[in-house]
Backbone:
């Protein structure tokens, strides 16, 4: 999603990396590029200006000139500032001490409030809450109806005493909904309000009145990730007019560069709590500022990846794998096993997109054929047990038999054996030194061995994406951007990144 | 500015295809094709656009400020610097110095970038029904646009049919039905929720042809431009329509708040459905929709219509000069 912005910044930093010492002119060139990149990503001009000033001040200070690797230090500063603007720590939804918790949704027309109301309700339901949706958008034609359809779809009741289309008093509806929720013991009330334009005083007053009537625990401001420079005006208008407690970024799955996230956080100082992607009712997740900052800088969304991995990659087998690696008994069976583990995590494409440096591979990712794994599996399954344990015995005639058995060509078999050898070699390095913990991801063992030990530490840090040592990270980054194989070599292990 | 369209009088032979309206109409008799000039009610968006430059007092020294202001109106970095350099050149060659003169030049430059020979809706070829395919990402105001447009066309005497091919969004069809009844237009609905939108489009086209409608407007579901399956579906919709009637206009609806992503949207939709015009909606908010300048600059697609509010009549043709004057503002700072 931040693809283009991160690619640009990476490009900019590449030029910096080659320098041992930074002159003020170097810094200015870089800052011009950052300014440009941010503007093209729709970050509001005033936010860009203050951001660039802040980075410049720090970049020209002692902390950079005395640093071991000044260029890397600048990257670090940019990352710090991004995290700071995005709100620092992750903020969770606030629940009332005594039920029901009242959540009010506000935002422009077409920002996705009604759809979001449904997603939020579904998410809350999965958390064990009993939500109810309130149709307080009585303006837009058929908004009430739409909410009802959404409610039906996710099996959440909708409180809609008024037909809408301009009929009914939304403040009264909101007020009654609370009474209703208390009576019927609903734990969360989600109030969908009429969409409005930032400047529309009348509707803004209505939202304010609803707010006063229901005294919500959260007033969530829903904003379209594709919004441009106007994001600051809109966010300010809502913050001043209605008073918001948090932000939801919607439609984040388009290819919008999402600069609005920076603009809104910066102008209102209010945290982004959720991001909503996609059209399905499940396309909804909590927002992590630090991960977003990493994404902007193309450091990859490694933490999300780890969480997903942990869900499906069972620890015992990972530990076993690590031991095997250390003993150098990694076989084709293990290789296959890993791939199957990998599969459990879901689509490879979506996982790889979260990888550090993935910006560079994005086009290849688009063309990546998931069936590649099936083919690899077919080849390995066509081998005898002895062959799987000792790939060294694979001579020409064995390879030709395997090719026939799996319906592939001898070239395919050869390339698989090569990839396996590379992977085995790489993993040995990992197991011994554990150097490239994360970047080796597609060669899963890197992760398996790596994150078990390293995870706690990584969680404590702001972004445990890669090596904590900036210089080391620079080296990794440099390698990647220059198009060399990542230390993890892994892209190739599964036939990617050719 | 008057927008005149030609419309076949209802009691004439529908089989005769109108050719050139200007040649045909004066000598038309009862037996022949008769084309009647239809004046759509006049509308203007002049008062809806608020100046972004009201706080700047222009002089030759501070022209850089224009760039920042244009960026804030979503013109984009490249377009903004291009405009500024054009303004500088013109100011120099005309020796313009005063605030008023410089404003005039800026208006000229912006308007020039937004002028286009084909900015009127293509409703005059005579080959009815004129099919308008309305596309765009989610939440930009496609359905509202269709409601306003059909109402306007109905006021001008056009018989309008609407095809509700947004079979995805909850209650989209009901919303459209509300608009259609307000506008007195016919509505072709899907038989069931989630039906193939191409099938609805096909039926709507068939019905419009059969009943001799003047204009057929097809509503489509909002889709983000990077969802390739949904974009393919759009391609299918346009293909099934074209099997029966040539599409007169593919209108991409852009929300004025859209930032630089608007350009990506325009590119993607053009690739799939050959967009012929932009409808810029929600222009009454604080956003200015400057991205349309970049869209026309890079893709040559003009803005044809603008939406300026929630009322059914808050809708007009796009007038480049008016738009530019509105953005820059004529009054002294």
Residues:
């Amino acid at each position: 999603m931040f693809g283009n912005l991160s690619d640009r910044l990476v490009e900019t930093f590449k030029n910096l990396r080659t320098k041992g010492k930074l002159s003020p002119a170097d810094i200015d060139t870089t800052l011009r590029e950052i300014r440009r990149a941010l503007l093209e990503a729709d970050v509001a001009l005033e936010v860009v200006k203050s951001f660039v000033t802040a980075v410049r001040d720090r970049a020209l200070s002692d902390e950079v000139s005395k640093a071991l690797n000044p260029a890397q230090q600048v990257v670090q500063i940019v990352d710090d500032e991004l995290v700071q603007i995005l709100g620092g720590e992750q903020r969770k939804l606030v629940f009332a001490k005594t039920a029901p918790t009242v959540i009010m949704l506000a935002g422009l027309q077409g920002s996705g409030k009604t759809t979001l109301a449904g997603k939020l309700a579904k998410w809350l339901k999965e958390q064990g809450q009993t939500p109810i949706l309130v149709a307080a958008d009585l303006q837009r034609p058929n908004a009430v109806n739409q909410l009802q359809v959404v409610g039906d779809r996710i099996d959440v009741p909708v409180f809609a005493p008024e037909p809408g289309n301009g009929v009914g008093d939304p403040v009264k509806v909101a007020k009654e909904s609370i009474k209703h929720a208390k009576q019927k013991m609903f734990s969360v009330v989600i109030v969908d309000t009429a969409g409005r334009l930032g400047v529309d005083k009348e509707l803004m007053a209505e939202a304010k009145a609803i707010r006063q009537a229901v005294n919500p625990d959260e007033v969530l401001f829903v904003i379209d990730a594709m919004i441009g420079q106007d994001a600051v005006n809109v966010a300010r208008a809502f913050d001043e007019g209605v008073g918001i407690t948090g932000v939801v970024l919607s439609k984040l799955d388009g290819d919008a560069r999402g600069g609005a996230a920076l603009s809104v956080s910066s102008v209102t100082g209010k945290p982004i709590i959720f991001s909503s992607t996609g059209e399905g009712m499940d396309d909804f997740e909590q927002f992590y500022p630090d991960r977003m900052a990493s994404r902007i800088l193309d450091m990859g969304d490694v933490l999300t990846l780890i969480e997903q991995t942990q869900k499906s990659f069972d620890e015992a087998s990972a530990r076993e794998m690590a031991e095997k690696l250390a003993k150098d008994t990694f076989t084709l069976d293990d290789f296959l096993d890993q791939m199957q583990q990998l599969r459990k995590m879901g689509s490879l494409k979506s996982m790889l997109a979260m990888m550090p440096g993935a910006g560079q591979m994005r086009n290849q990712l688009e063309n990546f054929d998931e069936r590649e794994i099936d083919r690899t599996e077919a080849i390995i399954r066509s081998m005898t047990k002895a062959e799987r344990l000792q790939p060294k015995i694979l001579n020409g005639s064995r390879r030709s038999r395997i090719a026939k058995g799996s319906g592939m060509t001898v070239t395919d078999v050869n390339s698989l054996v090569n990839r396996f050898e590379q992977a085995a070699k790489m993993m040995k390095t990992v197991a011994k030194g554990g150097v490239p913990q994360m970047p080796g991801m597609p060669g899963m063992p890197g992760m398996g061995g790596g994150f078990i030990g390293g995870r706690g530490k990584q969680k404590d840090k702001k972004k445990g994406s890669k090596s904590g040592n900036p210089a080391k990270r620079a080296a990794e980054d440099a390698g990647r951007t220059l198009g060399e194989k990542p230390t993890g070599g892994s892209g190739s292990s599964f036939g990617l990144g050719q | 500015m008057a927008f005149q369209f030609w419309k076949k009088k209802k009691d004439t032979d529908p089989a005769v295809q109108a050719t050139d309206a200007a040649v045909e109409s004066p000598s038309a008799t009862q037996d022949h094709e008769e084309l009647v000039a239809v004046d759509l009610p006049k509308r203007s968006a002049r008062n809806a656009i608020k100046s972004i430059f009201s706080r700047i007092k222009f002089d030759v020294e501070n022209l850089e400020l224009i760039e920042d202001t244009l960026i804030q109106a979503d013109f984009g970095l490249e377009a903004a610097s291009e405009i500024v350099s054009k303004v500088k050149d013109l100011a120099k060659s005309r020796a313009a110095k005063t605030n008023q003169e410089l404003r005039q030049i800026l208006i000229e430059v912006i308007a020039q970038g937004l002028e286009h020979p084909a900015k009127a809706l293509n409703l005059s070829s005579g080959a009815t029904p004129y099919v308008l395919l309305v596309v765009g990402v989610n939440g930009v105001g496609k359905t509202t646009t269709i409601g306003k447009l059909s109402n306007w066309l109905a006021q001008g005497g056009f018989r309008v049919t609407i095809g509700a091919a947004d079979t995805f969004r909850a209650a989209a069809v009901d919303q459209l039905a509300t608009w259609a009844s307000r506008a007195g237009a016919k509505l072709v609905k899907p038989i069931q929720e989630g039906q193939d939108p191409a099938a609805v489009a096909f039926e709507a086209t068939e019905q419009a042809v059969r009943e001799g409608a003047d204009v057929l407007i097809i509503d489509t579901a909002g889709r983000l431009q990077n969802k390739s399956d949904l974009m393919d579906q759009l391609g299918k919709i346009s293909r099934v329509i074209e099997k029966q009637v040539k599409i007169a206009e593919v209108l991409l609806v852009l929300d004025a708040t859209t930032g630089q992503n608007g350009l990506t949207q325009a590119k993607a939709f053009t690739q799939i459905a050959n967009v012929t015009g932009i409808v810029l909606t929600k222009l009454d908010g604080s956003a200015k929709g400057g991205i349309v300048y970049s869209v026309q600059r890079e893709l040559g697609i003009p803005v044809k219509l603008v939406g300026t509010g929630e009322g059914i009549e808050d809708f007009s043709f796009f007038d480049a000069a008016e738009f530019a004057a509105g953005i820059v503002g004529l009054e002294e700072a």
Notes: The domain at 130-319 of chain B is CATH 3.40.50.300 (Rossmann fold). Chain B touches chain A at residues 68, 71-74, 76-77, 137-141, 147, 168-172, 174-175, 178-179, 224-226, 255-262, 264, 282, 284-288, 290-291, 310 (CB under 8 Å). The longest helix of chain B spans residues 77-94. The radius of gyration of chain B is 21 Å.
